[in-house]
Amino acid sequence: MVLDKLKTLIGKVMQGYNIDLDAITMASTLKGDLGFSSISMLLMAIAIEEEFHITIHQLDGDTFLTVGDACDYIERALAAKK
Amino acid sequence: MQQENLAFRPFMDEADFDRITRPPTINALLRECRGYGELPACAWSGQERSFEELAADVARTRGFLLTLGLPPGARVGLLMGNDYDFVRLFYALVTLGCTAVPFMMNTPPEALIAMIHKSELSALIYGEMIAPLAQNLRPAAPALRFLAASGCGYGAEAPESADVAPATPAVILFTSGTTGKPKGTVLSHGALMRGAFNGCFGYRGVFHQRYYALIPFAHVFGLVRSLLTAHLTGSLLYLCLDMKAFVRDLPVARPSIMALVPALADALYSIAMGYGMDALGGNLRLIIAGGAPVPPSLIQRFGALGIMVAPGYGLTETANLVSGNPAPEQKPDSVGLIYEGQDYRLVDGELWLKGDNLMLGYYNDPEETAAAMQDGYFRTGDLARVDAEGYLYITGRIKNLIILPNGENVSPEELENLVCTLPIVKDCLVQEDVNDFGIPIIAARVFPDDRACAAAGITDALAAIQAGVLALNRKLPSYKQIVKVTLSDTDFLQGGTKKVR
Fold this sequence. Notes:
Strand content of chain B: 25-35%
Largest sheet of chain A: none
Distance between the termini of chain A: 17 Å
Shape of chain A: globular
Radius of gyration of chain A: 12 Å
Structural class of chain B: alpha/beta
Largest interface: A-B, 23 and 31 residues
Order of helices and strands of chain A: HHH
Oligomer: heterodimer
Number of strands of chain A: 0
Largest sheet of chain B: 10 strands, mixed
Shape of chain B: globular
Number of helices of chain A: 3
Radius of gyration of chain B: 23 Å
Structural class of chain A: mainly alpha
Strand content of chain A: under 5%
């Protein structure tokens, strides 16, 4: 579920870059496989906060290397909210 | 009427030009700022402080700091974001004659510990956001006083120190340098104020502007060109408490001037295109761009929106502002005219600088200081030329350093050494590359150790090295992470240890 939503967000953040969303897996690296720049990382963090109503600690965003890292973080933050 | 930087006068409102002053110390700056009275000095999340209130808050923060019994000239670390606590603590410390040592929040813990020891801190004040990290640092510096910024409140109003002179050290700012070993650049009150003064030249509308402080104050560009120039010109500084908040902040902050690295300026352009100019606050006139080469296309695209992008050139060691471009549309490739108060030389194409904006040296590092200086000049490591009209162009680098569009400097050597710690790697070459979308990235070409791979039963060396690099990346700040790994079938030695680049 989280992965599907995240894929949609990635598609929005990387609009115009023709990312193949179906090819995205938990192991996909944001900067390497998906071509994220430091600014797209920032924009994705903003998009995640709005979509999932969670707060990403300013420094934690730096630790997202793979799509799986972001998914795990979101799931942990959602669980902590319950 | 002031007479410096006359070359910039034709590009400015004459009344502005004549009004600019250069306080010799930050103490003098704050005394001058009191004259701005009830005008707003800082704003954030619905709060505001006038210049008068700021001066009083700084005096009362001094009162608190005096209760700590810090030794004269103490060095005090500031590990926090661009919040009001930073502003009042920074001003209070330096006007007491202490040296502020601001740290970037994304500094990895090991590097922070090295910097803490190197700068011989008496205390470290940390922001709320960074509290867990500060806790982790404690065991590595058991003798150091750790203070939460929220606990550093206000005491009775205390006067500034009478001993502060232009040559008094005000800050130590750490740079990674070409070997990745952190160096603490010591800047005096006089150097910082020269930088803040230079920031007033080359554009229309200097006084009573609205600034948005997106670049960290722990970076010389944010400290000098955002904080100090804003206050010197009686301008409001809207504080960016969290990088992620900037999209929400801009319509409220309504900045007229922003100091930005090119990557962030590019992001603003995308926002303006996608959501209209009001998304930037509808008030933006000037972007001071620095930290990395500014693409001329950025100047043209913003120019079409009526926003001037003015590239500048500066280094931590030069209190940021060496040159600024007052005519970017005519000279888009130039970093501008060199501000006065500096002597420059071009030696074998390398830019050497001397002037009162120069650092006092690297703290506790006579060897590095001596290596950086020659004949009284600071060797920038940048290759440059100056045209007939006095415009400076940066054409390359002597030092082996990757400069990314977000202004971060990365030492290839440091990353190469790190990759070579992987047991299946024999040699490595780290270079700047671009990804499929044209975005600059850090790439590593790796020469695998076939014997070690065979011994470990590894058949896919590339996959194994990629996994190893991913693990290394987890310990690196985002901007240093190696994005692309390719294999090489030879090593990179050429006559001794010199790498081919």
